[in-house]
From TrEMBL:
Subcellular location: Mitochondrion
Native species: Crucibulum laeve
GO CC, one annotated term: mitochondrion
Gene Ontology molecular function: any one: adenosylmethionine-8-amino-7-oxononanoate transaminase activity
GO BP, sorted A to Z: biotin biosynthetic process
InterPro entries: Aminotrans_3 (IPR005814), Aminotrans_3_PPA_site (IPR049704), P-loop_NTPase (IPR027417), PyrdxlP-dep_Trfase (IPR015424), PyrdxlP-dep_Trfase_major (IPR015421)
Protein name as it appears in the record: Pyridoxal phosphate-dependent transferase
Keywords, comma-separated and alphabetical: Aminotransferase, Transferase
PROSITE patterns: AA_TRANSFER_CLASS_3
Amino acid sequence: MSSLFKQLRVHQIFGANTDVGKTILTTALVRASALKEKSVFYLKPISTGPIEDADDKHVMRFGGKLANKIHAECLFRYNEPVSPHLAAKLMMPGDQSQLIPSDENVVNSIANRIRAHAGSISKHAHMYVETAGGVHSPCLSGSTQADCYRPLFLPTILVGDSKLGGISSTIASYESLLLRGYIIDAVILFQDQYYRNWEYLQPYFAERGIHVSAVHRPPEVLADPSDNFKSTEDYYNSITSTSEENTIPKLVDYLDNCHNLRLHELESMPRRTLDTVWWPFVQHGFVQSENDVTVIDSAYGDFFSVCKRNILQEPNATRSILAPEFDGSASWWTQTMGHAHPSLTLAAAQASGRYGHVMFPQATHLPALNLAERMVHDGPGRGWASRAFFSDNGSTGMEVALKMALRAFSLRHGKGMDSGAKKDLGILGLKGSYHGDTIGAMDACEEGVYTCEWHDAKGYWFEPPSVGIKDGKIIISIPPSISATPKANEIRLPSLSSVYDIEGRLRSSLARAYTLYIERTLEKLEKQGRPKLAALVIEPLVMGAGGMIFVDPLFQRVLIDVVRGRRSGSSSSWSGMPVIFDEVFVGLHRIGMESAGPLLGIYPDISVNAKVLTGGLIPMAITLASKSIFEAFLSDNKAEALLHGHSYTAHPIGCEVANKTLQLLDDLQTSDDWKAAQERWRPLDGTERTVWSFWDPTFVRELSKLPEVDEVMTLGCVLALKVKDASTGYTSQSAQTLLQKLRQFDDGGIGLSVAPGGDAFSVHFRTLGDVAYFITSLNTSPSVIRSIEDRIWKTIAR
């Protein structure tokens, strides 16, 4: 991800198959580069077979008079002339598979060599990294090369297949690389005068903006070694000379142009962005210069690859222009499996190829049907939901939920209400709520920084008690409105799990205090003659955009019980007012559970899921509804149907990606990493664990003791810390200022970092005023999380 240098142009060479002449053509490129007075580096990451036949030896053997300009090497060498994964196993018989280099080892080794060569030159040089076999030939670990080498994100040359069937294998290889995001600068292949594949492939790739070079075939291998050497040497001389008909020297120039164009694009993007883009949630008045624009060149796993503008502007820079940056907000809470997950990409491509997009009203297709059944019967709607309604994103999903709830309430309680009274129906919720940026979703929240001039707050919002870890202790903070004292009260609990033992806490005096406070408040509102409250809308357990407020779950449970009049658990019909769970942020294991319903011991009438749903690849939302809510729209009158929809309702690509995401989530729940994280959060007193986090409990506890930190809280992927600051709120800059050094590039003092390629990395994070938060993917490796913990600790403790 960070292997882009001004002075060193690097290309990775893939083959469309085995035996396509990859080494011969790479050797020709090496020689042509050397003829242009360039230092040339050749790297064969993995080699199998006898050393005398090794590709790096071939490159040096035919370097000839240019050998002093050429440096060739191999990183992992195996004697057996078989696929790399098998060659590695044969070299390590018995149960020694743990000794086989991992993909991470291979990638880091390549990146190290590239960095070393870049640092050793003073003038512009070329480097070629030649893979083994075809695009999907296995690497040492068994994963295919296309996936193994993807973290490096090197510009690619594809060596096409000139033999029978080569058109198909070349196009298939190209598409495999394209699906994984590779930049394919050129295709090169031999001119076979019988099959003439190049004649078909040149216009085919020209339509796709890909340069194709066709090269004369090499001579037949001669029996006499000296004769064969001379014949081969003459061949290389003939195809690398600067004569008009030779394509190899021209290809080298073209590759240089591609390299320079990429550098130019990276340099121009900040200014072009400032001239044309209006960012969300950004005060453009604070953006002082082009250096304030983060240019993301690519992304992989948990990291962006960002442009280091200061290095780009150095005339003779030897460091990489790109560097990894940890995606500390999971790209606004969307990432589930990390960026560029191949399984999700392939799921999207398959649905795109099969459907594109198709109309959905009174129709069905398999991706949507499978997803609806999964969400209703085997997912967060299990046990209470009857129907799934598709929409475009979390905000539109909440708009649908509000329409459902308000209609259901109007039908049951609207007798005698005129149309004006119905239009004034209000929402009951919590202060700090956020349900999206569409007007209707805004109106379901009290006025605040996220609303607009047209905002019409309709409802009442309780100030909720919250949960946090302060100075190593688990604290529930009770606001003055509940405690009836000038200052908030704090109640200490023995463990985080005890906070979320809802059934046990329902018998507490605090539960009775909550009940009395909620009942009296609602009675007071009714006596005041305010518009009727028609739905309870909550973000269960964590209110995200409001400041990562971890609400006391007991308060939310009591609130639902009061609103419903303690509806019988056997009843599936809503009572009091419909209850909506906005689980756009917290749902589908983001905070360590599929849904908050089982933990709260009570289920909604309507819920909304998005973000995690599609793994961070494509926007989509699902609103789940109970049978009684659905039946509120059943009629023989078309006008009484739910007349709400989106052009891309049940988008097949989004549905198929969601199905794959949920499948991957099923696998993760039984993974060793999840089990280990859950075990770390087991209460020391032996009581049952109810909640857990990927963040280490000791780190969280000690972080809360730092003098700059007011409190810390975590569940699942989420870590939130509140900075001690007199000017609290969204407009505060305290959290941003305290953690600013996380933006510096650091390898953690260990030589190789946990970022792809092992390069020093920075941390991209966002703040909510005096609150900083960090969110991992659901498959972030423990080593990455431990590294981020270390960086956060050092940044604040310093």
